[in-house]
Amino acid sequence: TLWYIVNCPFCDSETEYSNIGNHWRQSCGYPEPNHLTDDFDGLLMGDGCLKHTHNPDKRAGNQSIEVVSINKKFVDFLYDEYYPYFNKPKVRRTAKESSNNAINSEYLSGDTGNTFRTQYRIVSKAIPFFNRYDSWKSTGDKSWPKDIEFNPTQIRYLYVADGGLSWNKKTKSSRAQITSSNEPNMIDRLVDKFKNIGIDCRSYEDRMMFKARYTQEFLNFIGDNPVPGFEYKWEIDNLDRYESLYRNVYYDEVETYTI
């Protein structure tokens, strides 16, 4: 349950965690987590999206960040890592509900052997700090700022969301890659970023790929400690180990429903 008493980390007053946003607004003031800007940038560059809250009089309130994932370990990590800025994760849709939605929408077209997984949802507190991202949706669709710097933390979360390893099963070597179908024009900028620091890579339309011998250097750049839930994306040396970690995330440790 969300209805539990905590001490506000900023003023030490007792408050219900579910209402800590109201406490900030009415009492000690909204926090300004500037030291986490790169982290929140990275989440939005990846799978995160922006949500506007609404006041009772229907005026738009503050922005919040929402992440939906089938990777429970990841959303639990976000809650722990960025407390008190996120609410606890919740089940958004069970595997069975996902399969029913697909059937009702005729998405399956009579096919069988489709596997669905439970989805989890985590939403941040709505605070004025997140209103800085209004410009990311100025055109209606989420779009990165043209002057974004691509620092390690931002790219780390982009890799988690839209990157991974491509394996050559004959040589059992791996290459890191990042795909950005929403921001294909940014791929060349990313490639230039890495070439300028001596990490060779190539662009292929909406995808960039690192040479095998530079993949470890890329991971060193974004942080060689894996993001929880995505350990397999850091396993570049052992294909069997990579496949085992992958299965744990998407088959062994998640509720699935196959039709």
Task: Give a structural overview.
Helix content is 32%, strand content 22%. The longest helix is centred in the last third of the chain and has 14 residues, at 239-252. With 259 residues, it is α+β, with helices and mostly antiparallel strands. α2 runs parallel beside α5. Strands 3-4-7-5 form a 4-stranded antiparallel beta sheet. A 4-stranded antiparallel beta sheet has the order 8-9-11-10. A two-stranded antiparallel sheet has the order 1-2. 26% of the residues are buried. It starts with a strand and ends with a strand. It is built from 8 helices and 12 strands. The protein has helices at 20-28, 37-45, 72-81, 95-104, 152-162, 187-196, 212-222, 239-252; strands at 5-7, 14-16, 49-54, 60-69, 90-93, 115-117, 119-123, 163-168, 173-179, 201-204, 207-210, 256-258.
What secondary-structure arrangement, pairings included, does this model have?
Elements: E1 5-7, E2 14-16, H1 20-28, H2 37-45, E3 49-54, E4 60-69, H3 72-81, E5 90-93, H4 95-104, E6 115-117, E7 119-123, H5 152-162, E8 163-168, E9 173-179, H6 187-196, E10 201-204, E11 207-210, H7 212-222, H8 239-252, E12 256-258
Antiparallel strand pairs: 1-2, 3-4, 4-7, 5-7, 6-12, 8-9, 9-11, 10-11
